[in-house]
Amino acid sequence: MESEAAVNLKWGRGRRPLTPLRVIRGVLCIVILVLTAFVLLVYGGFWSGVVLRFFSLHYSRKTTAFFFGSWIALWPFLFEKINKTKVIFSGEKVPARERVLLLANHRTEVDWMYLWDLALRKGREGYIKYILKSSLMKLPVFGWVFHVTEFIPVERKWEADELTVRQMLSTFRDPRDPLWLAVFPEGTDFTEQKCLRSQKYASENGLPHLKNVLLPKTKGFYACLEHLRGSLDAVYDITIGYLHRCPSFLDNAFGVDPSEVHIHIRRVALGDIPMSENELSSWLMETFRLKDELLSEFYDRGHFPHEGTEADLNMVKCVGNLVFVMIFTGTCTFLTFFSSIWFKIYVSLVCAYMASATYFHIRASPIHIR
């Protein structure tokens, strides 16, 4: 595996300088994203994700997707239009309106955020969900968003996670509900130390010796297919590569990295994926062996094969979405600070509920009215 420094030297580019302008712009963007998320939660998310859920799970999800799809769309706008990160798609061009399982490698802590760039291009930004570590669900405001949008929290120990995962997956079966569910079978982001431990385990157990990904874990992926296979259209095998340097969250926000994100997509028909857990484990291992080879070629050539499968983001659409979010949040903020005491009481009660729901995973039980 080529070192990070070797890749930077080879392609002649590194991180952008952290100028005062980038710091100011990054802080401003983070503040706007936090504040808009908070207002959307209080005035949209509570009613769509909690109250409406008691009456119709389907319409609750549609309304929640409308509000938080508009917020999620702000992130690709930040990455691609403000910070000038090039997001380059390659591989297969995928249909726009499929119910899918996304199977991705986990190179760094922000991989999952770049899946929003693909979801936005397919009109699924409000319907993408993740299986992610439970500590992220406890973040102020962002954790509340993850809760309302039904991300699945895990401790990364199957004995502790199985009941929660299966219970939530069982609510995602309705084919009327659009769904993009993202799974990272490695279970953690890639580092050289973790890679060495993974390679040692592989040598001891007769498994492939991987250089650019970790050995995948099967049980969570198998549970997803077991519960959802009948309502899915396909699995998207996604491989993410960073040409110059793996970014952190703050690198993203300040626009110093990454300068390029490459996303390779392979669409897999469900009929090509084994049914039994043992056969699926072998299939998943082979899939990650192929990912490893693909990433080795990527680091050697600087790109994945068959580039250019997706167009650039529509600037007019992005700005229109930003204007909508700002007008909505501005109006709600005005009502909060300049109207009666009842608005303030309402905001306080919603915040108390969302905080408790985030920490204790309180979920409204859907009561369907036919």
From TrEMBL:
Enzyme class at the top of the EC tree: transferase
Residue stretches making up the Phospholipid/glycerol acyltransferase domain: 100-222
* The keyword Transmembrane appears for this protein: yes
Give the UniProt entry's GO cellular component terms.
Answer: endomembrane system
One MF term in GO for this entry?
1-acylglycerol-3-phosphate O-acyltransferase activity
* Domain of life according to the entry: Eukaryota
Q: In which pathway does it act?
A: Lipid metabolism; Phospholipid metabolism; CDP-diacylglycerol biosynthesis; CDP-diacylglycerol from sn-glycerol 3-phosphate: step 2/3
InterPro entries per record: Acyltransf_C (IPR032098), Plipid/glycerol_acylTrfase (IPR002123)
Task: Report the transmembrane regions from the record.
Answer: 23-43, 63-79, 319-339, 345-362
Q: Which reaction does it catalyse?
A: a 1-acyl-sn-glycero-3-phosphate + an acyl-CoA = a 1,2-diacyl-sn-glycero-3-phosphate + CoA
Hydrolase recorded as keyword: no
User: Which Enzyme Commission numbers does its entry carry?
Assistant: 2.3.1.51
Name the keywords, alphabetized.
Answer: Acyltransferase, Membrane, Transferase, Transmembrane, Transmembrane helix
- Give the protein family: Belongs to the 1-acyl-sn-glycerol-3-phosphate acyltransferase family.
Name used for this protein in its record = 1-acylglycerol-3-phosphate O-acyltransferase
